[in-house]
Amino acid sequence: MPVASDDHGSTDQEPDQAGQRRHVVDHHGLRHHGDSEVGPGLVDLAVNVRQGMPPTWLREILVSSMSEISAYPNAERATRVVAEYHGRDPDEVLLTVGAAEAFTLLARVLATARPVVVHPQFTEPEAALRAVGLVPDRVVLPDPFVLDASLIPGDADLVMIGNPTNPTSVLHPAATIASLARPGRCLVVDEAFADCVPGEPESLASVRLPGLVVVRSLTKTWGLAGLRIGYVIGPPELVAAMREAQPLWAVSTPALAAAEACVSPRAQAEAARWAEEMAGRRQVLADGLGALGAYVVPEARGSFVCVRLPHALRLRTLLRKKGFAVRRADTFPGLGPEWLRVAVRDDETTAAFLAALKEARDDLPA
Ligand SMILES: Cc1ncc(COP(=O)(O)O)c(C=O)c1O
């Protein structure tokens, strides 16, 4: 995949008052995220970050990293450890300021004439492209939102997809995604929620394919959204270009310590146990929603479910009055006002939420 020069060939630029060029960015609501749904006194079912995290042992590692805080961060060791974990070489890995930074760096360095984003999915990949003046084509998968490779235009030179996908919770088969890889195309797979799936059978993080880039996040499972740590795995020349584009010392020393700790055998065993337990709790949530007449996108594999029900936005407002924040899903291309996304929590919280939803539904005017 060629790497871009400074000129992105944007058609979305126009002069501002000072005669300089600036980007005209229309995010189409793409920058609405679950964190803007939560607030004081609300039980958070809107943000897909595991509750009660980080665990004590990880907090202790973060605290002890403070002893090195006066030095500039050095990502070498953490990069090597993360690379080893995925069976990759260090020059195939770049640690980033959360997965979100990876999308920004990719948008900056990729020379793409026909970018395609597969929706519904997390909206930052498209927002990052738009922020540099690129307007991607959207492939909107129909319900039940499973990837059909034949829908991807053959001349797409950049394809971005999530697996498992936020907000649908759908896990695409790795083989179907892999079939999209080809020379001259960059295939970006956002695996921010891969560790929700026991054994990660559909992950491509350890696979080398032409133009394949895997983006991972450590903020969800480990409750590190405020620390900001993720990484990207891909062809060395692309990773090198992203490293060049990344601000110097971008990933802090505590974030580097977290990266190393989160791929340790201890962390992986803990995450695997959690993923198994979470699957059971997700079933309880999905069954409860189904019993209330909601449609839940089948085969959910993430730490959240995607739900369609009549008057969803009004129910969301009523739920807020009852103390529960759920995420509106109408800001995801391909979904409409009848969709919500609900995080999997402990059974007690789920039971209280389902009771509140039933009440809210009964409160709706006939
Ligand atoms: C699918 C997906 N990818 C990436 C991210 C960004 O993660 P990070 O916190 O690592 O930047 C999110 C955050 O919500 C997400 O839902």
TrEMBL record:
Domain Aminotransferase class I/classII large stretches: 42-357
Keyword Cell division annotated: no
PROSITE patterns documented for this protein: AA_TRANSFER_CLASS_1
Cofactor(s) the protein needs: pyridoxal 5'-phosphate
Top-rank taxon: Bacteria
InterPro entries: Aminotransferase_I/II_large, NHTrfase_class1_PyrdxlP-BS, PyrdxlP-dep_Trfase, PyrdxlP-dep_Trfase_major, PyrdxlP-dep_Trfase_small
Protein biosynthesis recorded as keyword: no
Enzyme Commission number: 2.6.1.-
Compositionally biased spans, kind Basic and acidic residues: 1-11
GO MF, one annotated term: lyase activity
Family: Belongs to the class-I pyridoxal-phosphate-dependent aminotransferase family.
Protein name (record): Aminotransferase
